Amino acid sequence: MKRIKRFKKGDSNSKFNKLSLFQRPDTKFFKPCPLSGKNPPVIDYKNLKLLKKYISESGRILPSRVTSVSLKKQKDLSRAVKRARILALL
Amino acid sequence: MSCYEHTFITKQDLPESQNKSVLNKYEDLIKKYSGEILKTEEWGLRNLSFNIKSNKKGFYFHIKFNGTGKTIEELEKAEKIDEMLIRFLTIKVKKHNLEENYFDKKDY
Known about the structure:
The complex is a heterodimer of chains A (90) and B (108). Chain A is mainly alpha-helical.
């Protein structure tokens, strides 16, 4: 959340300061992990409905930078997908 | 004793009665080697997502049981040489989820 920096109202000069190359884009938004938080869905190799959301059309696992799944849950997810593949479920 | 989930797929051209006998055979095997069966699920005939040894469909059976390493060893040893099976998978779980059956409905 620290990344999001809002500019003060009425500060017209702030737009020019933003031209620095090393500044992070202001519009970058933070999406919370869809599999964490309260009452998260169970990641299981039998839960095909959930797993199908996180694979592409050709059956590849989507990267977490696309789906914004946390690192821990991404590991669980990829393990579940691989187990489902062994049983020819996916 | 640890919690395990075991799934195996049998060939599609087997008759119903033989499918049952395959299931009973492995249930007895688990019991013989100090295993304790908690739940058995039949997922029925499903399409395989890819062909395995030129099979397009298969009957799925799912067993939840408590057992030891010896149980798994003997179970997989018997399944490896079984020609009626296409594939099997054993997974160790921390806790059994006996209520939810993901393959109850037919809309998959």
